[in-house]
Protein backbone atom coordinates (compact mmCIF):
# COMPACT_ATOMS: atom_id res chain seq x y z
CA UNK A 1 0.00 0.00 0.00
CA UNK A 2 2.72 2.46 1.05
CA UNK A 3 4.89 1.65 -2.00
CA UNK A 4 1.98 2.34 -4.35
CA UNK A 5 1.21 5.55 -2.49
CA UNK A 6 4.80 6.79 -2.88
CA UNK A 7 4.62 6.05 -6.60
CA UNK A 8 1.46 8.15 -6.78
CA UNK A 9 3.24 10.97 -4.95
CA UNK A 10 6.15 10.81 -7.40
CA UNK A 11 3.74 11.04 -10.32
CA UNK A 12 2.05 14.03 -8.67
CA UNK A 13 5.30 15.96 -8.87
CA UNK A 14 6.20 14.64 -12.29
CA UNK A 15 2.78 15.39 -13.76
CA UNK A 16 3.32 19.10 -13.42
CA UNK A 17 6.44 19.06 -15.60
CA UNK A 18 6.63 19.16 -19.35
CA UNK A 19 9.25 19.49 -22.06
CA UNK A 20 10.34 23.10 -22.57
CA UNK A 21 11.16 24.95 -25.80
CA UNK A 22 14.72 25.85 -26.73
CA UNK A 23 16.15 28.83 -24.89
CA UNK A 24 19.34 30.74 -24.34
CA UNK A 25 21.12 31.83 -21.18
CA UNK A 26 20.45 35.48 -22.04
CA UNK A 27 16.69 34.93 -21.80
CA UNK A 28 16.78 33.74 -18.20
CA UNK A 29 15.22 35.84 -15.45
CA UNK A 30 16.92 35.31 -12.10
CA UNK A 31 15.01 35.35 -8.81
CA UNK A 32 16.38 35.32 -5.29
CA UNK A 33 14.09 33.30 -3.02
CA UNK A 34 14.26 33.46 0.78
CA UNK A 35 12.91 30.42 2.57
CA UNK A 36 12.59 30.13 6.38
CA UNK A 37 14.58 27.07 7.36
CA UNK A 38 18.15 26.39 8.41
CA UNK A 39 20.41 24.85 5.76
CA UNK A 40 20.15 21.06 5.66
CA UNK A 41 17.40 18.71 6.71
CA UNK A 42 14.47 17.11 4.89
CA UNK A 43 12.49 20.33 4.26
CA UNK A 44 15.49 21.85 2.46
CA UNK A 45 15.71 18.80 0.21
CA UNK A 46 12.01 19.00 -0.60
CA UNK A 47 12.24 22.71 -1.48
CA UNK A 48 15.40 22.13 -3.53
CA UNK A 49 13.64 19.37 -5.44
CA UNK A 50 10.59 21.50 -6.19
CA UNK A 51 12.72 24.46 -7.29
CA UNK A 52 14.76 22.19 -9.55
CA UNK A 53 11.62 20.74 -11.10
CA UNK A 54 10.18 24.23 -11.65
CA UNK A 55 13.36 25.28 -13.46
CA UNK A 56 13.18 22.21 -15.71
CA UNK A 57 9.66 23.12 -16.82
CA UNK A 58 10.42 26.88 -16.90
CA UNK A 59 13.97 27.17 -18.28
CA UNK A 60 13.53 30.93 -18.72
CA UNK A 61 13.56 31.35 -14.91
CA UNK A 62 16.51 30.71 -12.57
CA UNK A 63 15.77 30.48 -8.81
CA UNK A 64 18.49 31.10 -6.22
CA UNK A 65 17.23 29.67 -2.94
CA UNK A 66 18.54 31.19 0.29
CA UNK A 67 17.75 29.33 3.51
CA UNK A 68 17.54 32.13 6.04
CA UNK A 69 16.97 30.30 9.34
CA UNK A 70 13.87 30.62 11.52
CA UNK A 71 10.84 32.69 10.54
CA UNK A 72 12.10 35.45 12.86
CA UNK A 73 15.59 35.29 11.32
CA UNK A 74 14.16 35.27 7.81
CA UNK A 75 12.01 38.38 8.15
CA UNK A 76 14.87 40.23 9.89
CA UNK A 77 17.28 39.31 7.09
CA UNK A 78 14.75 40.17 4.39
CA UNK A 79 14.05 43.61 5.90
CA UNK A 80 17.77 44.29 6.38
CA UNK A 81 18.38 43.36 2.74
CA UNK A 82 15.47 45.60 1.70
CA UNK A 83 16.93 48.58 3.58
CA UNK A 84 20.34 47.84 2.07
CA UNK A 85 18.97 47.81 -1.46
CA UNK A 86 19.57 44.10 -2.12
CA UNK A 87 16.26 42.49 -1.12
CA UNK A 88 15.13 39.17 -2.55
CA UNK A 89 12.38 39.23 -5.16
CA UNK A 90 10.30 36.54 -3.48
CA UNK A 91 10.17 35.08 0.04
CA UNK A 92 8.15 32.77 2.25
CA UNK A 93 7.59 34.56 5.56
CA UNK A 94 4.96 34.32 8.28
CA UNK A 95 1.46 35.35 7.28
CA UNK A 96 1.55 37.56 10.39
CA UNK A 97 4.47 39.55 8.94
CA UNK A 98 2.12 41.11 6.38
CA UNK A 99 1.50 44.42 8.18
CA UNK A 100 5.19 44.82 9.07
CA UNK A 101 6.28 44.21 5.46
CA UNK A 102 3.68 46.71 4.20
CA UNK A 103 4.70 49.34 6.78
CA UNK A 104 8.36 48.96 5.79
CA UNK A 105 7.48 49.43 2.11
CA UNK A 106 9.20 46.14 1.36
CA UNK A 107 6.48 44.33 -0.61
CA UNK A 108 3.98 45.01 -3.36
CA UNK A 109 0.52 43.44 -3.81
CA UNK A 110 0.00 40.63 -6.30
CA UNK A 111 -3.21 42.13 -7.71
CA UNK A 112 -1.70 44.11 -10.65
CA UNK A 113 -0.16 40.86 -11.95
CA UNK A 114 -3.38 38.86 -11.69
CA UNK A 115 -4.97 39.86 -14.98
CA UNK A 116 -6.00 36.79 -16.98
CA UNK A 117 -9.06 34.67 -16.25
CA UNK A 118 -6.73 31.80 -15.38
CA UNK A 119 -4.84 33.99 -12.89
CA UNK A 120 -8.06 35.19 -11.30
CA UNK A 121 -9.38 31.65 -10.96
CA UNK A 122 -6.11 30.62 -9.28
CA UNK A 123 -6.06 33.60 -6.90
CA UNK A 124 -9.65 32.99 -5.80
CA UNK A 125 -9.10 29.27 -5.23
CA UNK A 126 -7.50 29.35 -1.77
CA UNK A 127 -9.32 28.64 1.49
CA UNK A 128 -10.88 31.82 2.86
CA UNK A 129 -9.43 31.21 6.33
CA UNK A 130 -5.91 31.40 4.86
CA UNK A 131 -6.70 34.59 2.93
CA UNK A 132 -7.66 36.39 6.17
CA UNK A 133 -3.92 36.76 6.88
CA UNK A 134 -3.08 37.43 3.24
CA UNK A 135 -5.29 40.39 2.33
CA UNK A 136 -5.90 43.85 3.78
CA UNK A 137 -7.22 47.11 2.40
CA UNK A 138 -8.79 45.28 -0.55
CA UNK A 139 -5.40 44.03 -1.80
CA UNK A 140 -3.72 40.62 -1.83
CA UNK A 141 -0.27 40.91 -0.26
CA UNK A 142 0.46 37.25 0.42
CA UNK A 143 -0.22 33.92 -1.26
CA UNK A 144 -0.77 30.95 1.12
CA UNK A 145 1.88 28.23 0.89
CA UNK A 146 2.91 26.37 4.04
CA UNK A 147 -0.13 26.96 6.17
CA UNK A 148 -1.47 25.22 9.22
CA UNK A 149 -3.94 25.15 12.08
CA UNK A 150 -3.47 23.90 15.63
CA UNK A 151 -4.71 20.37 16.24
CA UNK A 152 -4.73 17.99 19.19
CA UNK A 153 -2.66 14.82 18.91
CA UNK A 154 -3.53 12.01 21.32
CA UNK A 155 -2.03 8.63 22.15
CA UNK A 156 -4.68 5.97 21.54
CA UNK A 157 -2.82 3.32 23.53
CA UNK A 158 -2.72 5.54 26.63
CA UNK A 159 -6.44 6.26 26.13
CA UNK A 160 -7.15 2.53 26.21
CA UNK A 161 -5.03 2.08 29.36
CA UNK A 162 -7.04 4.84 31.05
CA UNK A 163 -10.35 3.22 30.11
CA UNK A 164 -11.14 5.87 27.49
CA UNK A 165 -12.50 5.27 23.99
CA UNK A 166 -9.47 5.69 21.69
CA UNK A 167 -11.70 6.89 18.87
CA UNK A 168 -13.47 9.57 20.92
CA UNK A 169 -11.11 12.45 21.85
CA UNK A 170 -12.32 15.21 24.19
CA UNK A 171 -14.66 17.58 22.36
CA UNK A 172 -15.22 20.23 25.03
CA UNK A 173 -13.19 22.00 27.71
CA UNK A 174 -15.01 19.98 30.38
CA UNK A 175 -14.10 16.71 28.66
CA UNK A 176 -10.52 17.89 28.21
CA UNK A 177 -10.19 18.25 31.98
CA UNK A 178 -12.03 14.97 32.65
CA UNK A 179 -9.86 13.01 30.19
CA UNK A 180 -6.72 14.81 31.34
CA UNK A 181 -7.23 13.69 34.93
CA UNK A 182 -7.64 10.06 33.88
CA UNK A 183 -4.52 10.30 31.71
CA UNK A 184 -2.27 11.90 34.34
CA UNK A 185 -0.25 9.33 36.28
CA UNK A 186 1.92 9.61 39.38
CA UNK A 187 4.41 7.24 41.00
CA UNK A 188 4.49 6.09 44.65
CA UNK A 189 6.20 9.30 45.73
CA UNK A 190 3.57 11.47 44.05
CA UNK A 191 5.79 12.53 41.15
CA UNK A 192 3.99 12.81 37.81
CA UNK A 193 5.20 10.20 35.34
CA UNK A 194 2.66 10.94 32.61
CA UNK A 195 0.82 14.18 31.93
CA UNK A 196 -2.67 14.31 30.48
CA UNK A 197 -1.93 17.34 28.30
CA UNK A 198 0.81 19.67 27.13
CA UNK A 199 0.19 23.03 25.45
CA UNK A 200 3.41 24.82 24.43
CA UNK A 201 3.76 28.27 25.98
CA UNK A 202 7.47 29.10 25.88
CA UNK A 203 9.26 31.07 23.20
CA UNK A 204 7.68 33.03 20.36
CA UNK A 205 4.45 31.07 19.81
CA UNK A 206 2.59 31.38 23.12
CA UNK A 207 0.15 33.86 21.52
CA UNK A 208 -0.70 31.32 18.79
CA UNK A 209 -1.54 28.49 21.17
CA UNK A 210 -3.49 31.04 23.22
CA UNK A 211 -5.74 31.61 20.20
CA UNK A 212 -6.65 27.92 20.39
CA UNK A 213 -8.32 28.89 23.69
CA UNK A 214 -9.70 32.34 22.81
CA UNK A 215 -11.24 31.18 19.51
CA UNK A 216 -13.34 28.37 21.10
CA UNK A 217 -14.33 30.88 23.81
CA UNK A 218 -15.69 33.10 21.01
CA UNK A 219 -13.13 35.87 21.50
CA UNK A 220 -11.13 37.69 18.81
CA UNK A 221 -7.83 39.30 19.76
CA UNK A 222 -7.53 41.94 17.00
CA UNK A 223 -9.36 43.68 14.17
CA UNK A 224 -8.86 43.12 10.43
CA UNK A 225 -6.98 46.40 10.01
CA UNK A 226 -4.36 45.29 12.51
CA UNK A 227 -4.54 48.54 14.51
CA UNK A 228 -6.73 47.46 17.43
CA UNK A 229 -6.50 44.64 19.99
CA UNK A 230 -8.99 43.23 22.51
CA UNK A 231 -6.80 41.58 25.12
CA UNK A 232 -8.69 42.71 28.23
CA UNK A 233 -12.15 41.47 27.19
CA UNK A 234 -13.86 39.11 29.69
CA UNK A 235 -13.83 36.13 27.30
CA UNK A 236 -10.09 36.59 26.73
CA UNK A 237 -9.37 36.72 30.47
CA UNK A 238 -11.51 33.58 30.92
CA UNK A 239 -9.34 31.80 28.34
CA UNK A 240 -6.14 32.80 30.17
CA UNK A 241 -7.65 31.60 33.45
CA UNK A 242 -8.54 28.22 31.94
CA UNK A 243 -4.99 27.79 30.58
CA UNK A 244 -3.61 28.54 34.05
CA UNK A 245 -6.15 26.22 35.71
CA UNK A 246 -5.14 23.25 33.53
CA UNK A 247 -1.83 23.18 35.41
CA UNK A 248 -2.50 24.69 38.82
CA UNK A 249 -6.11 23.70 39.56
CA UNK A 250 -6.78 20.59 37.49
CA UNK A 251 -3.12 19.44 37.58
CA UNK A 252 -3.25 17.74 34.18
CA UNK A 253 -0.41 19.78 32.69
CA UNK A 254 3.06 20.86 33.92
CA UNK A 255 3.22 24.21 35.73
CA UNK A 256 5.29 27.07 34.34
CA UNK A 257 6.01 27.40 30.64
CA UNK A 258 6.28 24.43 28.27
CA UNK A 259 8.81 24.57 25.45
CA UNK A 260 7.55 24.44 21.86
CA UNK A 261 10.29 22.05 20.70
CA UNK A 262 10.08 19.57 23.56
CA UNK A 263 6.31 19.06 23.35
CA UNK A 264 6.40 16.68 20.33
CA UNK A 265 9.32 14.82 21.95
CA UNK A 266 7.34 14.40 25.16
CA UNK A 267 4.39 13.08 23.17
CA UNK A 268 6.50 10.60 21.22
CA UNK A 269 8.06 9.10 24.37
CA UNK A 270 4.72 8.91 26.23
CA UNK A 271 5.46 11.69 28.71
CA UNK A 272 2.15 13.33 27.72
CA UNK A 273 -0.98 11.63 26.41
CA UNK A 274 -2.28 14.67 24.51
CA UNK A 275 -0.57 17.68 22.97
CA UNK A 276 -1.61 20.76 21.06
CA UNK A 277 0.68 21.78 18.22
CA UNK A 278 0.73 22.58 14.53
CA UNK A 279 -0.60 20.19 11.93
CA UNK A 280 2.85 20.76 10.41
CA UNK A 281 4.07 18.20 12.96
CA UNK A 282 1.92 15.46 11.42
CA UNK A 283 4.69 13.96 9.28
CA UNK A 284 7.10 14.03 12.22
CA UNK A 285 4.60 12.20 14.45
CA UNK A 286 3.70 9.70 11.74
CA UNK A 287 7.34 8.80 11.15
CA UNK A 288 8.39 8.58 14.79
CA UNK A 289 5.38 7.43 16.84
CA UNK A 290 5.67 3.81 17.99
CA UNK A 291 2.00 3.80 18.95
CA UNK A 292 -1.34 4.43 17.28
CA UNK A 293 -2.30 8.10 17.53
CA UNK A 294 -5.29 10.25 16.71
CA UNK A 295 -5.71 13.86 15.61
CA UNK A 296 -8.64 15.98 16.76
CA UNK A 297 -9.84 19.58 16.40
CA UNK A 298 -9.66 22.07 19.24
CA UNK A 299 -12.11 21.27 22.07
CA UNK A 300 -15.08 23.64 22.26
CA UNK A 301 -16.05 26.11 24.94
CA UNK A 302 -18.72 28.19 23.18
CA UNK A 303 -17.75 27.14 19.61
CA UNK A 304 -15.04 25.30 17.71
CA UNK A 305 -12.03 26.80 16.03
CA UNK A 306 -8.32 27.49 15.85
CA UNK A 307 -6.12 30.22 14.45
CA UNK A 308 -4.48 29.53 11.12
CA UNK A 309 -0.71 29.69 11.01
CA UNK A 310 2.32 29.32 8.78
CA UNK A 311 3.86 31.16 5.86
CA UNK A 312 2.89 33.04 2.71
CA UNK A 313 4.72 33.95 -0.47
CA UNK A 314 5.49 37.69 -0.61
CA UNK A 315 6.59 39.70 -3.65
CA UNK A 316 9.26 42.29 -2.83
CA UNK A 317 9.39 45.79 -4.26
CA UNK A 318 12.91 45.02 -5.50
CA UNK A 319 11.54 42.89 -8.36
CA UNK A 320 11.66 44.34 -11.87
CA UNK A 321 8.55 43.92 -14.05
CA UNK A 322 10.20 40.86 -15.67
CA UNK A 323 11.04 39.42 -12.27
CA UNK A 324 7.51 40.06 -11.05
CA UNK A 325 6.10 38.03 -13.94
CA UNK A 326 8.62 35.25 -13.31
CA UNK A 327 7.80 35.31 -9.59
CA UNK A 328 4.10 34.93 -10.34
CA UNK A 329 4.88 31.89 -12.51
CA UNK A 330 6.88 30.37 -9.64
CA UNK A 331 4.24 31.06 -6.99
CA UNK A 332 1.43 29.75 -9.21
CA UNK A 333 3.41 26.58 -9.91
CA UNK A 334 4.30 25.99 -6.25
CA UNK A 335 0.65 26.41 -5.19
CA UNK A 336 -0.93 24.49 -8.08
CA UNK A 337 -3.26 21.70 -6.94
CA UNK A 338 -0.74 18.96 -7.76
CA UNK A 339 2.20 20.63 -6.06
CA UNK A 340 0.18 21.91 -3.09
CA UNK A 341 -0.94 18.31 -2.56
CA UNK A 342 2.60 16.95 -2.89
CA UNK A 343 3.92 19.59 -0.44
CA UNK A 344 1.20 18.75 2.08
CA UNK A 345 1.93 15.02 1.83
CA UNK A 346 5.67 15.53 2.22
CA UNK A 347 5.51 17.98 5.13
CA UNK A 348 2.18 17.72 6.98
CA UNK A 349 1.14 21.31 6.25
CA UNK A 350 -2.44 21.84 5.07
CA UNK A 351 -2.92 21.83 1.30
CA UNK A 352 -4.01 25.42 0.68
CA UNK A 353 -6.84 24.97 -1.83
CA UNK A 354 -9.88 22.70 -2.13
CA UNK A 355 -8.62 21.71 -5.60
CA UNK A 356 -5.48 20.21 -4.07
CA UNK A 357 -7.62 17.85 -2.00
CA UNK A 358 -9.31 16.61 -5.20
CA UNK A 359 -6.06 15.37 -6.76
CA UNK A 360 -5.46 11.63 -6.95
CA UNK A 361 -2.32 11.91 -4.83
CA UNK A 362 -4.21 13.64 -2.03
CA UNK A 363 -7.14 11.22 -2.17
CA UNK A 364 -4.73 8.29 -1.83
CA UNK A 365 -2.90 10.05 1.01
CA UNK A 366 -6.13 10.64 2.94
CA UNK A 367 -6.97 6.94 2.64
CA UNK A 368 -3.65 6.10 4.29
CA UNK A 369 -3.55 9.09 6.68
CA UNK A 370 -7.14 10.05 7.58
CA UNK A 371 -5.77 12.31 10.37
CA UNK A 372 -4.79 14.82 7.68
CA UNK A 373 -8.38 15.96 7.08
CA UNK A 374 -8.84 17.25 10.64
CA UNK A 375 -6.89 20.46 10.02
CA UNK A 376 -8.62 20.99 6.68
CA UNK A 377 -12.08 20.56 8.14
CA UNK A 378 -11.23 22.88 11.04
CA UNK A 379 -10.66 25.70 8.51
CA UNK A 380 -14.43 26.18 8.42
CA UNK A 381 -14.28 27.64 11.95
CA UNK A 382 -10.72 28.98 11.97
CA UNK A 383 -9.74 32.63 12.42
CA UNK A 384 -6.79 34.75 11.33
CA UNK A 385 -3.58 34.33 13.29
CA UNK A 386 -2.85 37.25 15.65
CA UNK A 387 -1.26 39.99 13.56
CA UNK A 388 -1.01 43.76 13.93
CA UNK A 389 1.07 46.70 12.82
CA UNK A 390 4.45 46.66 14.58
CA UNK A 391 3.61 42.99 15.02
CA UNK A 392 6.76 41.72 16.73
CA UNK A 393 6.54 44.28 19.55
CA UNK A 394 2.81 43.77 20.12
CA UNK A 395 3.14 39.99 20.01
CA UNK A 396 6.02 40.07 22.50
CA UNK A 397 3.83 42.06 24.91
CA UNK A 398 1.11 39.40 24.69
CA UNK A 399 3.62 36.52 25.00
CA UNK A 400 5.33 38.07 28.01
CA UNK A 401 2.06 38.58 29.85
CA UNK A 402 0.78 35.09 29.06
CA UNK A 403 4.01 33.63 30.37
CA UNK A 404 3.73 35.82 33.48
CA UNK A 405 0.35 34.19 34.20
CA UNK A 406 1.66 30.67 33.61
CA UNK A 407 4.57 31.26 36.01
CA UNK A 408 2.26 32.83 38.64
CA UNK A 409 3.91 36.26 38.32
CA UNK A 410 0.57 37.94 37.41
CA UNK A 411 -3.13 37.20 37.61
CA UNK A 412 -4.95 36.73 34.29
CA UNK A 413 -6.88 40.00 34.73
CA UNK A 414 -3.77 42.04 35.56
CA UNK A 415 -1.73 40.50 32.75
CA UNK A 416 -4.35 41.21 30.11
CA UNK A 417 -4.93 44.73 31.43
CA UNK A 418 -1.18 45.40 31.16
CA UNK A 419 -0.99 43.86 27.69
CA UNK A 420 -3.93 45.96 26.45
CA UNK A 421 -2.42 49.18 27.79
CA UNK A 422 1.02 48.59 26.26
CA UNK A 423 -0.37 47.41 22.90
CA UNK A 424 -2.69 50.43 22.67
CA UNK A 425 0.31 52.71 23.11
CA UNK A 426 2.20 51.02 20.25
CA UNK A 427 -0.80 50.92 17.90
CA UNK A 428 -1.94 54.52 18.48
CA UNK A 429 -0.02 55.92 15.44
CA UNK A 430 -1.70 53.40 13.11
CA UNK A 431 -5.29 54.45 13.84
UniProtKB/TrEMBL annotation:
Domain of life: Bacteria
Gene Ontology cellular component annotations, sorted alphabetically: periplasmic space
Keywords linked to the UniProt accession: Signal
Localisation: Periplasm
Alphabetized InterPro entries for the sequence: Bact_solute-bd_prot1, SBP
Major localisation: periplasm
Pfam family, any one: SBP_bac_8
CDD domains: PBP2_UgpB
Statement: the UniProt record of this protein carries the keyword Ligase: no
Signal peptide stretch: 1-22
Claim: Ribonucleoprotein is one of the keywords in the record: no
Family: Belongs to the bacterial solute-binding protein 1 family.
Protein name: ABC transporter substrate-binding protein
Organism encoding this protein: Parapusillimonas granuli
Amino acid sequence: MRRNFLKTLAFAFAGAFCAAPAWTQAQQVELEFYYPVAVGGPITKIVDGMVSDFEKSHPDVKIKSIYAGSYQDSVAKALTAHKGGNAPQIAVLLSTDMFTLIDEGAIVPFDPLITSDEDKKWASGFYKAFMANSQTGGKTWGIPFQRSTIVMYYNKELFKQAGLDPNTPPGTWEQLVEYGKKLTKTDASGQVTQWGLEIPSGGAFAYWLFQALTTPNDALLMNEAGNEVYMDKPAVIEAVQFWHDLAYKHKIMPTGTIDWGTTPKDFLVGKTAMMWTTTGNLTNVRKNATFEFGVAPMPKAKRGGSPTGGGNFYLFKSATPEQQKAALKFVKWMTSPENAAAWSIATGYVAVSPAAWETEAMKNYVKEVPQAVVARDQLEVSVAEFSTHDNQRVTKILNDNLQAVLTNAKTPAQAMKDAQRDADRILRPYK
